[in-house]
Design brief:
Helix content: 40-55%
Order of helices and strands: HHHHHH
Structural class: mainly alpha
Radius of gyration: 18 Å
Largest sheet: none
Number of helices: 6
Strand content: under 5%
Length: 185
């Protein structure tokens, strides 16, 4: 199992593209949401206390790309219906025209970024005894990359330092969001 700081760092790295699409507040919010969802695949650690089913064991179904994609869509739908009215009424957000589809896309993308970053970092540090099958049920085989040791302090500190420096640098950038065709106006 990867150290939590490795998951935090990788989720922050997966959140970097937000700076090229949105301004400060949405980008910081997106990064925070990826942090909140980066450890959700590890819910299987708690589920295995209640079930002995192989799919609910650690590195089981919750560590698959299809699981993260489906749960992300469900999360996005729930957030769109529950959060959109509150977002439009909030004074922190300088808009009263946030649509449910915008909330859905934003929260779903943040969930996907956090969840997929978790799977990627687990793949990068998966020893043969901790392999995962990230594409189950489409592909049943385990995938083992094992590039770095999961408990490597220099790697984890290097990742978190890189991620924080990137986010602080982008936060302090004079011009954002950057002019791209994918920006939300």
């Amino acid at each position: 199992m990867v150290e939590p700081i490795g998951h935090v760092a990788t989720a922050l790295l997966f959140a970097v593209p937000a700076w090229f699409l949105w301004g400060r507040r949405p980008s910081v919010t997106f990064a925070a949401l990826t942090q909140a969802t980066a450890t959700l695949p590890d819910v299987d650690i708690y589920l295995q206390e209640y079930s002995t089913h192989p799919l609910l064991q650690h590195h089981g179904i919750t560590h698959t790309v299809p699981f993260v994609l489906v749960v992300g869509v469900v999360f996005g739908i729930v957030a769109a219906y529950l959060l959109t009215p509150s977002l439009n009424a909030a004074r922190l957000i300088h808009s009263d025209s946030i649509t449910r589809s915008t909330t859905f896309l934003f929260t779903t993308a943040a969930f996907w970024a956090g969840g997929l970053s978790h799977i990627v970092v687990d793949l990068l540090s998966a020893a043969p005894d901790a392999a995962i099958a990230p594409f189950w049920p489409l592909y049943h085989g385990d995938v083992i990359l094992n590039i770095v040791a999961y408990d490597s302090t220099p790697v984890n500190l290097g990742l978190i330092a890189t991620a924080v420096v990137l986010h602080v640098g982008l936060y302090r950038a004079e011009r954002y969001p950057y002019e791209t065709r994918w920006g939300i106006n």
